[in-house]
Amino acid sequence: MALENSSAPATAYAQPEIDVPALTAVLDGEYAGIRDLVRGNLTTYSSILDEADELGIDAYRERVREVVVKMAATGQTGMGFPVEYGGGGDVGASIAAFETLAFGDLSVLVKVGVQFGLFGGAILHLGTGRHHEAYLPGLITGELMGSFAMTETGHGSNVQALGTVATYDSATGEFVITTPDDDARKDYIGNAARHAELAVVFAQLEVDGRSQGVHAFVVPLRTGGRTAPGIRIEDDGRKMGLNGVDNGRIWFDGVRVPREALLNRFADVTPEGRYESAIDDPNRRFFTMLGTLVQGRVSVAGAGTSVAKVALTVATKYAARRRQFGAGQGSEEQVLLDYGLHQRRLLPLIARTYALHAAQDVVRTQLHEVFSGLSGIEGDARARRRLEARAAGMKALSTWHATRVVQECREACGGAGYLAVNRFAALKGDSDVFTTFEGDNHVLLQLVAKGLLTDHASEFEGLDQLGMVRYVTGLAVETVIERTSAHKLLERVRDLLPGGDDWDREAGLLDPEYQLAMFRFREEHLLAGLARRIKRGIDQERAAGAVFSQVQDHVIALARSHVERLVAEAFVDQVRALPEGGGKAALGLLCDLFALSAIEADRAWFMEHGRLTVQRSKAISREVNDLCRKVRPLAVDLVDAWGVPSAVLRAPDLVG
Amino acid sequence: MALENSSAPATAYAQPEIDVPALTAVLDGEYAGIRDLVRGNLTTYSSILDEADELGIDAYRERVREVVVKMAATGQTGMGFPVEYGGGGDVGASIAAFETLAFGDLSVLVKVGVQFGLFGGAILHLGTGRHHEAYLPGLITGELMGSFAMTETGHGSNVQALGTVATYDSATGEFVITTPDDDARKDYIGNAARHAELAVVFAQLEVDGRSQGVHAFVVPLRTGGRTAPGIRIEDDGRKMGLNGVDNGRIWFDGVRVPREALLNRFADVTPEGRYESAIDDPNRRFFTMLGTLVQGRVSVAGAGTSVAKVALTVATKYAARRRQFGAGQGSEEQVLLDYGLHQRRLLPLIARTYALHAAQDVVRTQLHEVFSGLSGIEGDARARRRLEARAAGMKALSTWHATRVVQECREACGGAGYLAVNRFAALKGDSDVFTTFEGDNHVLLQLVAKGLLTDHASEFEGLDQLGMVRYVTGLAVETVIERTSAHKLLERVRDLLPGGDDWDREAGLLDPEYQLAMFRFREEHLLAGLARRIKRGIDQERAAGAVFSQVQDHVIALARSHVERLVAEAFVDQVRALPEGGGKAALGLLCDLFALSAIEADRAWFMEHGRLTVQRSKAISREVNDLCRKVRPLAVDLVDAWGVPSAVLRAPDLVG
């Protein structure tokens, strides 16, 4: 395809130049200060990357704890907590700090996530004053380590069905916590095997013989280093990665905690044993509590993008200096990045990473707004649900992107990429579980799709199929079908694009409005189609489970399309807002490369649905090749602008 | 799509039943005996899978060596060597043994590959009687460990440009071997860091001031455990995986070896210093020597497929018993494998693994025929080149498949899949480098495409671009364009498919002739298109390097299509040859699932090139869904039939 004429305009193309520090400032945005603090800390403690290989697992875990505590002392990990307890009082900054921390050793990152995000977040958001006063000052410094004990061996995704039970004993004013069987043991719990003194334990609350659903309790796991009575802990042992984090399993055998151990922000039990909650609906109550998870998902989404940045920084720098093969015998060998194939392998991934960065800015800002002043969690329910859907979708796309990027970059660095002294071994093993933890990606995408089907009218709850079908068979599906007609889309693009009904044939490929219209058309078409399929299944009186199972691939396709549209919009908006200059021009190329390579990857769908002719499809592939050639001279500057500290690249064979 | 009517025929569909041992016998084929010997050995030494996690790197390496030597004593690793030196005299059996060994610890596998395949293979195929007598008996038992020192830090793929030099000194009758700079140090060399006493060293031979190209020399690395004078060895250290193999770097500083150290099957130096070879052309000589590598590529191809089998066995068994979510609150949760999405994730991968198994049978048989009696390497050059192309292509597709399967299966097993006690951590880290070693996959596919462009008329050489262009601009390209016209394809399908010019619209989707015609059409169209593009570039007098760089993605697409066509043909042939019964019916479903999901994955291309209408493309997706539902009840039997010993599944949390 490359030999055909490019579809670029005939006007002279001026290769943009990038001012790297200026572009870094754009990318760092309002959080440049906290990001630079973290970059400094990463450089100070960069020896942890070597220690991860050299130390035994016990010593490595201790070292990770030590680094976490030292970083906590600089303020970087406590940004999300209220100032009165020693925190920074800035939720957005806490996410930005976490994103930046993901450039370094990922055991440190995940231990920070467990301690300050999950454990600390649960105390902060589910607890009340008594819990805040008792625990926040200690946990913010890292002196008081804790676990977030939700997942069980038998229940990772469907946490509403957890098996652990907490029964209220009104005689003593205590909860009695019990693990009924091995399926209900807590599993993969960070900090549990070694360091946690406390755990926030999620269990089915039983009061007066009646189940009130899942609630959270503060339970001491260890005192003076010894496991508390009635508690059994087992080490999860070595993992594919993240071996600096001490994951473990916990069983509870009639463990008694005082009534005040219930994190009682949304529900409480009176001393006499009366259950009280301001939220009547048990489902709504449960998913309001789960709102604490949204911060974790936004964090992991950002971390995934950072992992991709590290891998691409190493692989791009390597490709810009490594030579292999030449034009002929005796001639100098050619730099890898000058090969068309190598450009095709790396440059669209750089573009997508920039796009995800822009989209991460949006979701972080939404989180900050919803959670600032602590009002959000009870505030605008609709805004919260939209945030939760966006966070779930971004987490899935960003972490799959990371897995794909690390793999492609390792292969692009050949045998040297396989040596542990270079960073891919750690990056790959450590980041692999990102696609699973904080919500399995496939499950998260189904939640995203459900939000779209119900127009966010329902609680952002689990995958209860009957519940879903109930909503869909009601008003929502008609609304969805009406709202997503091709006619409506056309109305919206008419003012933006030439060509009227033929907008998809007339518009220039490099017109962002064309690219966005393509993403929007795909999403709306998938949404309408899915709603119709579900409705048809229900009209035929088929079992909800069977209907749901058979449309599952549509569900996933819809959710992916939705999130990809959000990402594209975020990137287009970011580029438009930049002042004219080399940076804007360079990001404009990347934005085109992201959008067109995404459309190219799904061109079969666009052809099948009448929005791409064969000629135009081929033109898009040519344009992607052309964009790769234009981005190639900028590649090293573009990865440098991410500002991954050189001390943590740790790829001596690859980047010198 | 799943709610539409299936395109399956209206006649009653009878679900086939599988006799698992009978299907295993079909898959094991003529090598059932050696495969069962290896299965027994894997079970005997299955503790190595735990030891890999528990032992330090030094102890693990020693243990791997020990297991390799003990397995050698059972005869499994020496099958490829002549009987008179203690081998089994059966090349095909040696590959089958290696394939089966890949069910177990992959450090053991790779150490076997280094010792018996690379080092032993070089002595056998490049050496002559004096080398065979001196080394084969010791190396076959594993007592004499050796290295295959080809790759250098600066040259992994372009080995014709190696930097190590061997200068003949006629005064002493010795070769003097020198590493001129760090780029020329030998790197990633298995057995080098610890166990090798000898190495086969590839170096530029200089005789009387004249360079004769790369040749191989037997060089002592250690005597009595001490590094030989003039040699420096450095440990490559920890790797992403395969840490039971002691990879290292080697520098030579004027190391002297006697004239007889030259492996002189294809070239020799007389005592007086005259260079002699029966093969005049230096290129042909070099690539004849490299013929030893073909066995390694066939072996790694088979190992990749075996890795996929292990991962799919674990993930399928887990998916058939793990429950998560239900049709509604209170109802029993649903088995993962009953979800349409989960079927879509796993079952096409099972089908592709079966297809690759069938194709591996073909390439193993070809290898056996070419190499049996040791005549092959000098025998029919054309057959050898076709074998080399097929081996290169199979190695690339099979190892990428393994990487993809391991990743998908790990994610499908959630958090449990991340624990080292289950097998994915080791499988993933250990098999990752398969895509790189024994030839980088992208480089191998370029070699495959070159063979197609030149109709295997040229030597199977490197990616010398001028050489390639020379062939292509000559007779070959015209022949290719003529041979691959749509007209010719049509002639060939006319007798097999109804519909004449409209064969691609009329034939049934489940007709294997239709499926094969689609694969063939794609390959021939890509080949003709690529030939035309190169010719056009040359006609425009563009630099060969630029032309080549810009068509590289076509080159890769062509090679993939070619190999996928070979795989499809092998699978169709295998199924056709089976006796009627449940096994044939089950493999027939898998064959359809493989072919249609491969066409579906590339349906954009088929639509762009007029061979798939939108309606038919959608029908293929529906058919794939339908096939998944039919294969689902057979899934556990299908993975059991691969015969992965239960002792090496090592996934207690996943398969019980």
Could you explain how this protein is built, in words?
The structure is a homodimer of 656-residue chains. Chain A has 656 residues and is an alpha+beta fold. Chain A has three domains: 20-141, Butyryl-Coa Dehydrogenase, subunit A, domain 1 (Orthogonal Bundle), CATH 1.10.540; 146-285, Butyryl-CoA Dehydrogenase, subunit A, domain 2 (Beta Barrel), CATH 2.40.110; 295-323 and 333-646, Butyryl-CoA Dehydrogenase, subunit A, domain 3 (Up-down Bundle), CATH 1.20.140.10. Chain A contains 25 helices and 15 strands. Chain A has helices at residues 20-28, 32-44, 48-54, 57-73, 91-101, 106-126, 129-141, 282-289, 293-319, 340-371, 381-412, 424-431, 441-453, 465-483, 486-494, 503-506, 512-539, 544-550, 552-577, 582-601, 603-608, 614-631, 635-640, 646-649, 652-655, and strands at 146-149, 165-169, 174-178, 186-189, 198-207, 210-220, 222-223, 226-227, 231-235, 248-252, 255-258, 267-269, 275-277, 323-326, 333-335. In chain A, the strands form five sheets. In chain A, strands 1, 2, 3, 5, 6 and 11 form a six-stranded mixed β-sheet that branches. In chain A, strand 7 and strand 8 form a beta hairpin. In chain A, helix 2 (32-44) runs parallel beside helix 5. The longest helix of chain A is centred in the middle third of the chain and has 32 residues, at 340-371. At the A-B interface, strand 14, helix 10, helix 11, helix 12 and helix 14 of A face strand 14, helix 10, helix 11, helix 12 and helix 14 of B.
